[in-house]
Amino acid sequence: GNVDSEAQNIAIKSGTFNDLYLGDYWKINNIIYRIADFNYWQHGINPLNPNHLVIIPDTPISTKEMDQTGENDVTYYDSSLRAYIISTILPSLNTLFGLKIAEYTENLPTEGNIVNEVTSKVELMSESQVYGQGIFRAYKEPTYSHSQFSLFKIAPEYIHQSSEAYWLRDRAETGYYCGVNINGMATYRSGASSSGIRPCFPIFGSTQIIG
Questions:
Q1: Cα–chain-centroid distance for residue 166?
Q2: Which of 61, 99, 188, 208 could covalently link to 172 via disulfide, CB atoms 3.0 to 4.6 Å apart?
Q3: Cβ pair 6, 18 in contact under 8 A
């Protein structure tokens, strides 16, 4: 459907996830938001304790360059794309999902491969989350989100569901960033080029209504 039910909220909050299955989805404003995992971020030093679903749109919800600063050595953490996700995409998702998006701890590398521990609500996916390993990234990302989402492991056809390529957050080399091409294969491209934005985020059970 295009809204969540009270029973679904209770199932998420309790952690039973009763009648909620991997691959189930809500369709809101003609975009499918699909369940990609359960309690994925309940690990690490600062686990996300509320029971939660990982939600991923089937198709990119916007298109943008990775970075517009003109710098060649910008990481995703410092990119204009991440700033856009936080300032524009997150508020729109909060509206759609009734402020049910949970905060979780993430590690994002910045210049000089220095790791920043950040509090996230929505981010681009990494190569590990999509493919289960690094492919083109230049270094092993020190992140809490190191495993493949269950949806992509069980049903890899959901890695790509549109005619548009999309960004991943890993950097391949100076000025180039990882992504998924139109055939669902790993690739990388210049940060000055445009590609789709297909983020991931957790939602928890509450009395707020989706849609």
A1: 11
A2: 188
A3: no
Whether the pTM exceeds 0.85: the reply is yes
Q: What is the rounded distance in angstroms from the CA atom of residue 211 to the CA atom of residue 207? A: 13
Comparing CA positions, the residue from 148, 120, 158, 156 lying closest to residue 32 is: 158
- List, in order, residues 6 or more apart from 189 with CB less than 8 Å away: 165, 176, 177, 179, 195
pLDDT tens sequence across 91-132: 999 999 887 999 998 888 887 777 788 899 999 999 999 999
How does residue 208 score in pLDDT terms, banded at 50, 70 and 90? low
In this prediction, residue 141 carries a pLDDT of 66
From CA 49, how far away is CA 41, in angstroms rounded? 8
Instruction: Write out the two tokens for 162.
Output: 């549109």
Selection from 35, 26, 21 nearest residue 3 by Cα: 26
* CA–CA dist 75, 140 (Å, integer): 14
Rounded to 5, what percent of the chain is helix, strand, coil? 20, 30, 45
